[in-house]
Design goal:
Elements: H1 29-38, H2 42-48
InterPro entries: SMKR1
Protein name: Small lysine rich protein 1
Region (Disordered): 1-24
Length: 66
Amino acid sequence: MPGKEKRGTGRGKSHGKKQKKPEVDILSPAAMLNLYYIAHNVADCLQLRGFRWPGAPKAKKGKAKT
């Protein structure tokens, strides 16, 4: 049909070198201020920074649908 675009004509992902993520200081003043507002206690703070305890439930990604 005229006026219909073909599917799959877009560019694919490039397979070049992956860029390394810059090292982030989790003890910087900006990070500490952010943590102050999002963490409720020490255990929460450690969990948000990636230090989980054995047997901890895995965090769900994304928003829960209501």
